[in-house]
Amino acid sequence: MKVNKTTPTDYPISDSIKNRWSPRIFANTPITEQQVKILLEAGRWAPSASNIQPWRVIWGLKGTEMYDRIFNCLDEFNSSWAGNSQLLWINAYKKTMNNRDVDNFHALHDLGLFMGNVIQQANSMEIAVHQMAGLDFRKAQKEFGFTDDYHVTTAVAFGYFGGNPENLPEDLRKQELKEKRERMSQDKFAFNGNFEINKQ
């Protein structure tokens, strides 16, 4: 079932950006390991401060032990829907600069750039992406053997568009079928001058 979304942009933007959204239901079409490698390759070429590339990814395809281990780190809310995805992965980043005990202040920003590349690549393959903050990062840190120099941040669900929203819990079904997408207007976050607190 195709869910139609409208994106009321104020200015013309790329269709790839305009048509991107984060479903919670996916088609049953499998994602292959080759496709995962393509997504990771797209992320690999993201820019990063001093080219440190602080991102780290744990991934698992549906039907494998790795998928189940990742799924078991999700919080209750995300567990209610993410099990219909075809690929799960967990993002982490290295907190310090290479070979130096100095905080990498830009690491989280760079992980975001990595995921921006991944999302655009996924869109070109008609694969939907839904990022999730709701996971037990301490559990994931231990489960996957990350040292204290790394911070687990988000989980991500991937799958093809076209799943049946009727398979979602009722409250999520309503969100899934909501047609109009919304964002704050530019004047709330961009200033050609000083920051204006009253715009927030």
What does this structure look like?
This protein is an alpha+beta fold. It has helices spanning 15-18, 33-44, 65-71, 76-79, 107-124, 137-143, 170-177, and strands spanning 55-61, 87-94, 127-132, 150-160.
What is the strand tally? Answer: 4
**Major pleated sheet:** 4 strands, antiparallel
Order of SSEs, N→C? HHEHHEHEHEH
Structural class by helix and strand composition: alpha+beta
SSE inventory with pairings:
Blueprint: H1 15-18, H2 33-44, E1 55-61, H3 65-71, H4 76-79, E2 87-94, H5 107-124, E3 127-132, H6 137-143, E4 150-160, H7 170-177
Antiparallel strand pairs: 1-2, 2-4, 3-4
Helix pairs in contact: 2-5
Concise description?
With 200 residues, this protein is an alpha+beta fold. It is 30% helix and 16% strand.
Annotation keywords:
about 30% helix; single chain; 7 helices; alpha+beta; 4 strands; about 200 residues; globular; 4-stranded antiparallel β-sheet
